[in-house]
Each structure stands twice: as structure tokens, then as C-alpha cells.
Design brief:
The complex is a heterodimer of chains A (303) and B (239). Chain A contains ten helices and 14 strands. With 303 residues, chain A is of the alpha/beta class. In chain A, helix 5 packs parallel to helix 6. Chain A starts with a strand and ends with a helix. Helices cover 80% and strands 0% of the residues of chain B. Chain B is built from eleven helices and no strands. In chain B, helix 1 crosses helix 5, helix 2 crosses helix 5 and helix 7 packs across helix 8. Chain B starts with a helix and ends with a helix. Classes of the chains: A alpha/beta (303), B mainly alpha (239). At the A-B interface, helix 2 and helix 3 of A face helix 1 and helix 4 of B.
Chain lengths: 303, 239
């Protein structure tokens, strides 16, 4: 295990940000850290990297206690913080060389690794530009290049794909897959498809608690519930469906209902009954595929 | 630590900030020393640089907080502080690197005033007649005051993520330590006045200006720098 988090807790005032969180990550695998906004993903990552202190619990990185001596382990960790903060008036190459310097790399190594990271992240055309002039996608590459420059064993990327367009998204995902070899890589996201596309392991957290953890394949087969999607011309009320399963509104607002249930057949009948009783005009009633999206909804809304 | 120090220096001279500060400082001091009739050396009648040493601390009170305000505040505002804090650099190393970069700028600002001394010494009668001991004592004092203000400015910058707040706080603290305490000492009487006066930066600066380099003055100012840099590290640790 290159990362072992046990019973981590953290409070912000009265609010419990993390509640007894435990998970681990192993080398050569990508761990997706999944949860809705405000679930505690960033807080966990900030604690692992030594930016925040924990109230209780332990974090061990490569077998050493990371909470006791964060500076000693700092060179082993590559971290891309949320929102990717960068020195906007630095030039790309200058910034990477500076980062190499503060990680205590030798100048020959810095030059060689900077070259390599610029090539790997496809920044050749931008290396002599100021970071402030780059588009969001390229800035993200600079952030990732910085996180990997000192060849860390543990790489932590906090929402590396937020705010990117679909093409950039694919590029960054491929980049993550490419650089993950031989490293322990953790990245957080609230986008389910991303986890399905990139990760081998998944940890789902909500309200500071682990809701589910394991390999992606195991989690998918354990998804016992199915989703039914009902769309009508009239606005719906969640309370009409409470006896049938776990209802929530879909992407189209109150005219679309997403219902999680164990028994699709029974639920379908019950839904149609509600539709005819209330005199609603049905547009569609679909059964969603069993996927991680379903699981995510189940875990973070259901219970 | 070296790379952070170099990056800070490049940040000053890679943008207009560094040049602007140096030019403005030299223009302000140049006007006070050579041009404005109330303070001009040329109208004074004596070949000394009294006015340089009298007015520079006033200029420093505004100038040094202006260069130190972004030092830590901007890192916090932009979020790049997270990059520094999760790097292997310790807080002490970060603060020292930033402080040394400020010192270099202060030093570069007052370096050209050595040329003033040479000009003035030529104006003396006979030429070359300048109180060099007094001059170097004062010059060292000026450097020490600049260094102390830089530490105070850095401390102010650690308290907030807004540059303007850091600037105003910095100016206030420098003003208080340099002028305020002396003024306060004048308002109270007895032992208190003595102790308050002892804490004032201007008291130790004036003492150095007499040309006697007293180790107590040097140690006091070094102590002040140490206290403010230490406080900066503590503040950063807390946040």
C-alpha cells in the first residue's frame, strides 16, 4: 500500500467535514475519488498533502506517517490542488524549472525532466508563453506537468478535468492514463463517466463518510438497483412515488423523475398506476442501464 | 530555497514593479536632497548629507510596505500558497527566501546614494572633506532601517490575502515603530519615557547616525527583524 488513510476526521466549526474516513491506494492503479460537491474530497486531499491538519486519524504514505512529518514526504507526493493555482505572470518553462528547484532537484535533472514533461503534456508550442496567456486546458496541463515533474510515487489530482471542453477532457484523461504507470494515482471528480473511463478502483464519499469503496468491477456488479425514468407533460411531485422507490428529479426539472428501485417490474406497474390515477399525460417511461451513475445516485441520495 | 529567492527577484524585475520602485525612490530622494529649497544640500552651506538621512525613513515608510505587500498576500489570494506549503520547503525557508529578495531590492534602492556622498565630498572646502564616519554610520543605519521595515512589511503581508490591507497595515506599523513611539515617549514622563524611547526605531537610527556604530543598536534592530520574521512564520503556521 503506498497510501493508507485510517479513521480520518476533521471538523470545520460545528460541521463535520470528514467522519472516520478510511481507504487505501496501491501502486500502479488509479483510484477515483468520487463524491458530490462538498463531500469532503478536497479536504481529504489537502490533509494527505499536509496542507491541512486532521483532528484525528492517521495517514501513511509509503509506510511513513504523513501527518507527523509532511515536509519529509512532500517530495514523494505530486499534488494538483483544486482550481489549479499557478503563477500567471511566469513563463511555462520558467515555472516548471522553478518548481523543480523548490523540490530540491539538481539542475541537470530539472532541465531533463522539464523537457520530458513538456513533451508528455503536449506543451511544446506553449513553453515560451506566459501561463496567464494560456487557455484553461493548457493551464491544466501545466499544473499536471508541475505535479509530476519531480517524479513522485504518489500523485494526487484534485478535480483535474473541471471546466474543460469535451476534447480537452479526453486529452487530459489520456494524459492521466499515460502518466499513471508505476505510480499510485488518486484523482477526485464528481463526474461518474470519468471514473468509468479511467479508474480501476473507486471510493465514493458523501458528507464526509465513505459510502462505498472497492474495485470498479466489483462495484458495478454490486449495483442491485435499477433506475426508471418517467417523463410527463405535467409537473410531478416526489411524494406521489415515495412508496415505490427512491425518487428524485432528473435533468429536465419537475417533469422528469428518476426513481431507484430493486424490482423494476413492480415499480413500473406502480408508476403507471400513479400516472393514470392522477390523469397525467405520459411522454416516456424508461429503464436506465445499470451503471455507476445509478450507483452514485443510490449511494449519495438513497440510503 | 534558492529558486524561490530567485523567482521573487525575477518577479520584481520581470515586471515593472522593481524598476518603478527604484526609480520613484531615487526621484523622491533626489528631489529632497538636491532640488527642494527647504531640504536641499546645495542651499545648506555645509557639505553633509543630513537631509538624505533625515528624509529617507519617511520615504521608506511608504515605499517598503508597497514592495512587500504582495509578497505573501498575493500567494494566498491566488492560491499558489498551497503549492508552496505542500512543497518540501519549510515555512522558515519560504519566509527567509521572500525576505532576502526584499532586502536585495532595498539594498539596490539605497546603493546609488553612495554616489551622493562622493559628489558632496567634492563640494566640500577643501574638496574631499566629508565626515565619512558619520556618513557610513548613517548609511548602515539606513540599511538596517530598510531591513527592519522589510520584515515589518512581510509580517503585514502574512496577516491578510488583500494587498491593499497589507500595505496599509505595513505603513501603519512602520510609522508606529519609527515615529509613533518617539512621539509617545515625549508625552509620558519618568522611566516609561525611557523604555518607550528605547523601543523606537528612530532612537537607534539616530544613535547610529552619530557615526558611532554601537553594537546595542545593531543588535536591537537585528532583534526586531528576528521578532517580525518569527511572528510571520507563526502566523503562517496558524493559518
Amino acid at each position: 500500500m503506498s497510501l493508507q488513510v485510517s479513521q480520518l476526521s476533521k471538523r470545520y466549526g460545528a460541521q463535520k467535514a470528514l467522519d472516520d474516513l478510511s481507504f487505501s491506494a496501491s501502486p500502479g492503479r488509479i483510484l477515483g475519488f468520487l463524491g458530490p460537491n462538498g463531500a469532503g474530497k478536497s479536504t481529504t486531499m489537502k490533509i494527505i498533502t499536509g496542507y491541512l491538519a486532521a483532528d484525528s486519524g492517521t495517514v501513511s504514505v509509503l509506510g511513513e506517517n504523513a501527518l507527523a512529518n509532511p515536509k519529509k514526504l512532500a517530495a514523494q507526493i505530486g499534488y494538483l490542488p483544486e482550481n489549479n493555482p499557478l503563477y500567471l505572470d511566469s513563463y511555462v518553462r520558467e515555472f516548471l524549472e522553478f518548481s523543480g528547484g523548490i523540490y530540491g532537484m539538481k539542475s541537470a535533472d530539472i532541465r531533463c525532466r522539464t523537457e520530458e514533461m513538456i513533451r508528455k503534456t503536449g506543451l511544446q508550442g506553449e513553453q515560451h508563453k506566459k501561463i496567464g496567456q494560456l487557455s484553461k486546458g493548457y493551464r491544466q496541463r501545466v499544473g499536471i506537468a508541475r505535479a509530476l515533474l519531480h517524479d513522485p510515487a504518489l500523485v494526487i489530482l484534485d478535480e483535474p478535468t473541471t471546466g474543460l471542453d469535451p476534447n480537452q477532457l479526453v486529452d487530459i484523461r489520456n494524459l492521466i492514463l499515460e502518466v499513471a504507470e508505476n505510480k499510485t494515482l488518486i484523482f477526485s471528480t464528481h463526474i461518474m463517466q470519468e471514473v468509468e473511463a479511467v479508474c480501476q478502483d473507486v471510493v465514493i464519499i458523501n458528507q464526509g463518510k465513505i459510502r462505498s469503496a472497492g474495485s470498479l468491477a466489483d462495484l458495478k456488479s454490486a449495483t442491485s438497483q435499477v433506475t426508471l425514468i418517467l417523463e410527463t407533460e405535467e409537473p410531478l411531485d416526489l411524494s406521489w412515488f415515495e412508496g415505490i422507490g427512491v425518487p428524485s428529479f432528473g435533468g429536465k426539472g419537475t417533469q422528469e423523475l428518476v426513481l431507484l428501485t430493486k424490482d423494476a417490474g413492480e415499480a413500473r406497474k406502480a408508476i403507471l398506476q400513479v400516472v393514470s390515477q392522477r390523469g397525467l399525460s405520459l411522454i416516456r417511461l424508461d429503464q436506465g442501464a445499470k451503471n455507476l451513475e445509478t450507483l452514485f445516485r443510490e449511494i449519495t441520495q438513497g440510503q | 530555497m534558492k529558486s524561490l529567492f530567485l523567482k521573487e527577484i525575477t518577479a520584481f524585475f520581470g515586471s515593472l514593479t522593481g524598476y518603478l520602485v527604484l526609480v520613484l525612490f531615487l526621484v523622491a530622494i533626489g528631489l529632497l536632497v538636491w532640488v527642494f529649497p527647504e531640504s536641499s544640500v546645495l542651499d545648506y552651506g555645509y557639505a553633509d548629507l543630513e537631509s538624505l538621512f533625515l528624509y529617507t525613513p519617511y520615504v521608506f515608510t511608504f515605499l517598503i510596505p508597497a514592495i512587500s505587500m504582495r509578497s505573501l498576500a498575493e500567494e494566498r489570494r491566488a492560491g499558489t500558497w498551497e503549492l508552496l506549503q505542500t512543497s518540501p520547503l519549510s515555512l522558515t525557508q519560504i519566509v527567509l527566501a521572500k525576505y532576502l529578495a526584499l532586502l536585495v531590492l532595498v539594498f539596490m534602492a539605497i546603493l546609488p546614494t553612495l554616489g551622493y556622498a562622493y559628489s558632496i565630498s567634492l563640494l566640500g572646502n577643501p574638496p574631499g572633506n566629508l565626515d565619512w564616519a558619520g556618513f557610513f554610520g548613517s548609511w548602515l543605519g539606513l540599511l538596517m532601517i530598510g531591513a527592519t521595515f522589510a520584515a515589518v512589511g512581510l509580517f503585514a503581508s502574512s496577516l491578510t490575502s488583500q494587498q491593499v490591507v497589507a500595505f496599509v497595515l505595513g505603513v501603519f506599523l512602520c510609522f508606529l515603530l519609527y515615529f509613533g513611539l518617539t512621539a509617545l515617549a515625549g508625552m509620558v514622563s519618568g522611566d516609561w519615557a525611557y523604555w518607550i524611547e528605547e523601543l523606537s526605531l528612530s532612537y537607534h537610527y539616530n544613535s547610529l547616525s552619530r557615526g558611532v556604530i554601537d553594537s546595542r543598536d545593531i543588535f536591537f534592530l537585528l532583534g526586531m527583524i528576528w521578532v517580525f520574521l518569527g511572528a510571520t512564520v507563526l502566523i503562517l503556521k496558524k493559518k
